[in-house]
Amino acid sequence: MQIQDAYINRHPHHIPLLFMMDVIHGYRTIFPAPIAQGASFDPEISKRAASVAARETSAAGIHVVFSPMVDLVRDPRWGRVMESTGEDPYLNSRFAAAQIHGFQGDDMKEDGKVCGCIKHFAGYGGAEAGREYNTVQVSEHTFREYYLPSYEAGIKAGAGMVMTSFNTVNDIPATINQKLMRQMLREEMGFDGVLISDYAAILETVAHGASSDKKDAAHKALLAGVDIDMMTGCYAGELAKLVKEGTIPESLIDESVLRILQLKNQLGLFEHPHKDADPEKEARYILCPEHRALAREAAADPPIPESSFYRAVHRQLRDLQQLGRHRTSRGLRHDPTGR
Which residues, at least 6 apart from 132, have a Cβ–Cβ distance to it below 8 Å? Predict the structure, then answer.
């Protein structure tokens, strides 16, 4: 609260700061890791867990949480498998939407709500050999059919922010990939919120060999529609120079600034810069009996429970029918003895 007040008082237009934080499966009250939540087949309990995390983080003064991670993962060698809800596009989509609803509610201005951030756009879980930051080589069909649906589900649920991914997609770093960010994300999915880079992802395009230096990296990221440069100073140090040189139009800067201001307005920060930040609320909510009881309930929720979601899937499977003259043949079953 002191940082916010000091900044607003110094700012010529008194515009408040956004405070953002990684909140993966709980703030102080910890819930099962996302992969375990996915194994429950119960998006509703994941939504309730996100709501609890939002209440605790908002009371602590946080406005944006870098969650949920909705990347499709199918290689157990990748070190971030546990941050995803799993390997199925439909399941991941259901959980993505549920968590966004839990974090944001119907209105981010509401007490105890924060802005969610869909990450990592896109294909981050498809890294070759499960190696972190590695390249992703994927066909257009596979990318659209399996990887993109969960991101789109979170966006359709109203996510206010999306985070770029570190990886390349078919040899182009995602963070400067105009087809990925402007065409697929903005035009096709209709995302009009804030796009933030992952930690130092803009500068890392130099390491990828796709940008020559910080200035070139900032230029390419802005052209791709990235609004916030996380932790490198590429934007802060280079964008003004690029505008003065005429390399990029000032209108691109205006677009990004407007999206960030709109998010701050959606959070109600212009009327209430501290939003829900309150030491008394923080002490009352964090690790309170109600939140701990839900965490225990989530941890006890068994894989493949008798949830409405599971029953719907089970009902579909039950209604499958085998047809044809070989439907009762033992030859349809695998028998290592050959009998």
Answer: 78, 79, 80, 166
Interval 124-170: pLDDT, tens:
999 999 998 889 999 999 999 999 999 999 999 999 999 999 999 99
Tokens describing residue 111: 């007490």
Residue 115: beta bridge partners? 64
Strand stretches in the chain, DSSP E: 20-21, 64-65, 117-121, 161-164, 168-169, 172-173, 194-196
Q: Choose among 218, 222, 192, 186: nearest CA to 204.
A: 218
What tens digit of pLDDT does each residue of 217-241 get? Answer: 999 999 999 999 999 999 999 999 9
Locate 40 and state its tokens: 């429950």
Q: Which one-letter DSSP state was computed for residue 196?
A: E
Active site residues: 198
The answer to whether the beta carbons of residues 91 and 57 sit under 8 Å apart is no
Structure tokens at 289: 């009996």
The one-letter code for the residue type at 293 is A
Three-state secondary structure call for residue 213: coil
Q: Mention every residue, 6+ apart, whose C-beta is less than 8 A from residue 59.
A: 112, 276, 277, 278, 281, 282, 284, 285, 286
Tokens of 192: 């009009």
Core vs surface per residue 289-308: b (16+ CB within 10 A) or e: eebeebbeebeebeeebebe
Cα–Cα nearest to 201, from 167, 238, 235, 244:
167
Q: ω into residue 68 within 30 of 0, thus cis? A: yes
pTM: 0.89
The terminus-to-terminus CA distance of the chain in angstroms comes to 74
What are 70-86's pLDDT values in tens digits?
999 999 999 999 999 99
- The residue among 199, 264, 193 whose CA lies nearest residue 229 is 199
